[in-house]
Amino acid sequence: MARVDLAWRHKGACNGLDPTVFFPDSEEDSAEAKAICAECPVRVTCLEHALMSRERDGIWGGTTEKERRRILRHRGKSA
Ligand code: SF4
Fold first, then answer.
1. Is 37 near ligand 1, meaning CB less than 6 Å away?
2. pTM to 2 decimal places
3. Rounded to the nearest whole angstrom, what is the distance from the C-alpha of residue 2 to the centroid of ligand 1?
4. What is the atom index within ligand 1 of the atom nearest the CA of 33?
5. Which terminus of the chain, N or C, has less C-beta within 10 A?
C-alpha cells in the first residue's frame, strides 16, 4: 500500500487551532476557516489531498464539501 505523505499538515495555518472551526455546522459558517486557509502556505496541497481522498466533511484548502464536488465534476468534464 502506498504511503501517504501528510507532513504538509504541520505547515498548515490551521495547525494547533481549534479543529471545530474547520468543521462548521453549515456552509454559511465557513467564513472563518476560509479566511485562515486563504493565508495558508500549503493550501493547494491541502485541497488536492481533499479532492483525491474525497474528504466529505470540513473545510480543506479553503473549500467546502460542496465546492470540492463542483471542482471534481468540472475536472471530470474537462478530462
Ligand atoms: S488550507 Fe486550510 S485546512 Fe488546509 S492546511 Fe491550510 S489552513 Fe489547514
1. yes
2. 0.90
3. 23
4. 2
5. N
Residue 51 near residue 72 (C-beta atoms within 8 A): yes
61 — phi, psi (to 5°)? 55, 30
Residue type, 35: A
Count Cβ atoms below 10 Å from residue 34 Cβ, excluding itself.
Answer: 16
d(Cα 74, Cα 38) in Å, to the nearest integer?
22
Of all atoms in ligand 1, which is nearest to the CA of residue 61? 1
- The domain segmentation of the chain, as residue ranges, is 28-79
Determine the atom of ligand 1 nearest the C-alpha atom of 36: 7
Q: Which amino acid makes up residue 40?
A: C
